[in-house]
Amino acid sequence: MYIDTTSSSTVTEIEHYLKPMARQCINSRLDYRQISEIFKTVLVSIAESEFTIEGKSQTDSRISLLTGVHRKDVRRLLSQVQSKTLSREHGLITKMIKAWLETPELISKDGTPKPIPRHPQNGYSTSFTELAETLTRDIHVRALWDECINSGVVSLTDDGMVHLLTGH
Fold first, then answer.
1. Backbone phi, then psi, for 156, in 5-degree steps?
2. Which helix (H) or strand (E) holds 13?
3. Contacts 24+ apart (CB under 8 A), 150-153
4. CA dihedral over 115, 119, 125, 130, signed as positive or negative
């Protein structure tokens, strides 16, 4: 037997926020199936990132329990989110290279990119971290760093300097 424990004030508040979204969906010609898929994606994403238990990995089963979304759908939606994140990271790598190459103080007289420190340091106009932070707030700098290293875009020398690898 299912007992509804949701208070009427919570339902009223949610309805208040959903009405303008419903108008936008109808104006944008989104049907219920599309809206449902969007909402499932948001539910799964929020449950996965914000409702973790310290010291435990987040499982598809727990996310399914929190959201009511079927485990098979949770797995599918999480893989889609992961692939979008990777795509965004690759776009950010391109932006990072472009920003580095278009910043005059980061280019030497012979036209090659100067090395920059990984983290902010006195005596340097910018660092990898600062450059990355100007490009995005959505993806953590560490994720972008890891992807740049893994894809061979940058290297780190023992002195803590990051070198842009241009293939010269």
1. -115, 125
2. helix 8-27
3. 151/90, 151/93, 153/93, 153/96, 153/97
4. positive
Q: Which residue has the tokens 């190459």?
A: 101
d(CA 165, CA 162): 9
SS3 138: coil
Q: Helix H segments across 51-168?
A: 60-67, 71-101, 128-135, 141-150
* Whether residue 90 sits in one domain with residue 60: no
Q: Domain for residue 23, yes or no?
A: yes
The verdict on 52 and 90 lying in the same domain is: no
Which residues form the domain of 104?
A: 86-168
Distance CA 4, CA 159 (A): 61
Q: Are 97 and 90 in contact (CB under 8 A)?
A: no
Per-residue pLDDT tens digits for 7-54? 888 889 999 889 988 999 898 898 999 999 889 988 998 888 888 888
Q: What is the pLDDT of residue 4?
A: 62
Phi, psi angle pair for 113, to nearest 5°:
-70, 135
The secondary structure of residue 107, as a DSSP letter, is B
Encoding tokens for residue 25? 């969906």
